[in-house]
Amino acid sequence: MAYILALLFLIGIFGIAQHLYKQKRKDSVKQMLEIATHSATSSVAEKKDDSPTERLLRKSSKGVVLAAMLDKNILFKALAIIFVVLTVQILESLEILVLSQTMKVLILFIFIASIILLPNRIKNMIISSRVKRISEDLPFVIDMMAVCVQSGMTIENAIRYLAVNTATINPDISVLLTRVIMKMEVSGMSEALDMLNEEVPSQEVRMLASTLQQSIKFGSSVYMVLLDLSKEMREMQLLAIDEKVSGLAAKMSLPMIVFIMFPILALVGGPGFIRMVALWPS
């Protein structure tokens, strides 16, 4: 066991040294890039491995920020593994915990797999739940946009108004609309809607972006189009709920067989079986 711990300790030290070396190289490259112009640095900053949805939701979700930090922090993972190994060793030396060699290896393997795989899974789960919430609340926001347009606002002013007033309803939608406004001020409304269509993997968001694109392109009245769009989204959500409800019958068949059918069979056939056993010659 001592050889295994020493080997794990050396692997951890090697990982930490490699991480520090890479971090030092990144800092030197960052210092070199700071000499360039602001436009060059902004273009380099856009080239990241993170998805656009993750970069967007980081502004409104601390869970995404924490999960992404744990997923990419190699130093933290190495220190956590070393801490667990040393903790198990200390508990064994104090005779508080007694484990076999196989159990120690199994615990170490489970912990390493968890610390490597779980942060990314948790991050993806948070992103999926946030995108789902955006899709669920979007019909209400579209109704508000239609009311703003009917009152005399332009689409641009309506988006600015909603970006401020939807922060208490859904912070993710507020951040999304704020990003659309920033892109719209730089590149125009058309490119801002294209960015909206690409960044959020939601059918409802893409429907909204394409509807506004068609309204801008063909100059059609957007009030009734927005009302029809929100109605269509609600119908899609109701169909999804109906589909889930219809699938409950198949999912509930197994629990009903296990927890209802078998007890009923025991209650009905139990007394007769007991009488048969009583009549058997001993």
TrEMBL record:
Ranges that cross the membrane: 6-22, 74-91, 97-118, 254-274
Source organism superkingdom: Bacteria
Domain Type II secretion system protein GspF residue range list: 142-268
Primary localization: membrane
Location relative to the cell: Cell membrane
PANTHER family: INTEGRAL MEMBRANE PROTEIN-RELATED (PTHR35007), PILUS ASSEMBLE PROTEIN (PTHR35007:SF2)
Full protein name: Type II secretion system F family protein
